[in-house]
Amino acid sequence: MKGGIVGVVLLVGSGIVWVAEALHCEAVPGVLKQIDAGAGRVCGISKEGKVVDFRDDGWVDLEASGKHVSVGPAGLWRVGLDGLVFKWFQKGWVQVNPGNLIQIDAGGDKFVVGCNPSSGIVCLNHRPALSYDGSGSVSWMAVPGELKYYSCGPVGCWGVNKLDEIHVKLGVSGNSCPGPEKWYRIPGSLSMVEVSADGEVHGVNKHGSVFKRIGVSACNPFGSGWEHLRVAGISSHVSYDRGVLWIICRSGEVQKCRFSEALPSE
């Protein structure tokens, strides 16, 4: 991937360092491997590999197994244990043919993106993503590049590759989900990254530290620096929606967090 280096990163010790003024977390019952929040809903993968939905302060089994789940403007999607792709349609799961992914994201503007076992990147424009009912087949579109994790929001798509390098693609839309070929490299290192429906960007590095990208907006889609969020324990996965940051610890414990506006630190 090629592109200009944009922004400042805390991980290499340069530029602006931000410290969260306050991060208030509470434990949520249950043990999860992965979590995703979007469109006012929170879903996850339990330690047994079951797809679950958070309701009334507890997890409801959605009667399916999986290794990755995503919920957002494009609906509810999951990747099965064997890599097959499924979509929640009306009152149940329908298999998406063809489909072979390791990670999927439904957080873009009603389109779907994902990564396959070969680090290839694919996407579905909003019309096939929304209308597919399990009959016939879909035509996944190839996205130039190689990533292991890819997530989209209103002002850009963020991803990380096998080296934990961070990349951003602009100009992606529901009518043109591959976007232009150009990628922008963001200095730093993350194992996974998630973009929320309102454009917030959060990620976790290989050491289990959680970071938030500061200043992401339509006028500045790359943001201006990283904020290191001080959370208890070592983290493995994060997702954000409507003011709530959901964190999974490496032990599988789940935290539901809210934080105030950050202040710059000298």
Strand order of the largest sheet: 5-4-3-2-24-23-22
Average pLDDT, rounded to a whole number, is: 91
Approximately how much helix is present in the residues?
under 10%
Q: How far do the termini sit from each other?
A: 34 Å
- Radius of gyration in whole Å, from Cα? 17 Å
Secondary-structure element string: EEEEEEEEEEEEHEEEEEEEEEEEEE
Please identify the structural class as seen in this structure. mainly beta
Beta fraction: over 45%
Number of helices in the DSSP assignment: 1
Task: Profile the largest sheet.
Answer: 7 strands, antiparallel
Unreliable stretches covering 5 or more consecutive residues: 1-17, 262-266
Label the overall shape.
Answer: globular
Based on DSSP secondary structure assignment, what is the total number of beta strands? 25
